[in-house]
Description:
It is a single chain. The protein has helices at 6-15, 44-54, 69-76, 105-123, 146-163, 185-196, 210-215, 240-260, and strands at 20-24, 59-64, 83-86, 91-93, 129-133, 136-140, 168-172, 175-179, 200-205, 222-226, 235-237. It is an alpha/beta fold. Helix 7 links the parallel strand 9 and strand 10 (222-226). The radius of gyration is 19 Å and the shape is globular. It comes from Labedella populi.
Amino acid sequence: MTLEGPLEAALSRLAETDVLLVALDFDGNISPxxxxxxxxxxxxxAARAIEQLAALEGTSVALVSGRAIASLVExxxxxxxxxxxxxxxxxxxxxxxxPPLALSAEELDVVDRLGAxxxxxxxxxxxxxVESKPAGHxxxxxxxxADTALDAQHVVRRRVxxxxxxxxxxPGKDVEEFSVLAATKGDAIVxxxxxxxxxxxxxxxxxxxxxxxxxxxxxxDVGVKVGAGDxxxxxxxxxxxxxxxxxxxxxxxxxxxxxxx
Length: 261
């Protein structure tokens, strides 16, 4: 297959790089958003492309997600050859058997207090749901009606700011997330790039937090925004279906380059 326009040309240049890192957001990028986060799965075409890219010489694949590593492993189904960054750059699996995230006693206390606040807000706002993560908690608004979701958003922001000053807030699509860590997906890209010694990076994502990743991309890298909204990414596709098409095309281009070496 061949993509149209400047994105095809950018992928062709990217495929020529010496060491390629293909880094991907999960939800809303290679997996459509679903009401139950535990039921999310990558599109089959995207999953095959990830497997094929990870098997190519000089090519590494990483999933960079707001999910905890344990959740990301469960829903993605990827093997140990795929690098993982979870909790918005707070957790990493660079190799099999990597130790879990370690927090201080003070940080763990803040995480517990944060959880109590978010659960209290969720009880007062039907349809909202709390997701617990190693370094924080997220209040999901997707299944609440619009008025309830908006009120929950305002209440949780106000309470967390008042009761837990200094905590990191990460608003996203239909979610309000808070963490004791200040790491971002941009930090994840920098660390992953250094880990594999990548000479160029591909990154795609759909959420507000993915802008941190786009922000650290440089000359020779390729960023693809999924869906509507302001973005720093130079390219855009409508949905995860088109992300899968882009990955399939990248497999074709990169495979040809690797074979020719």
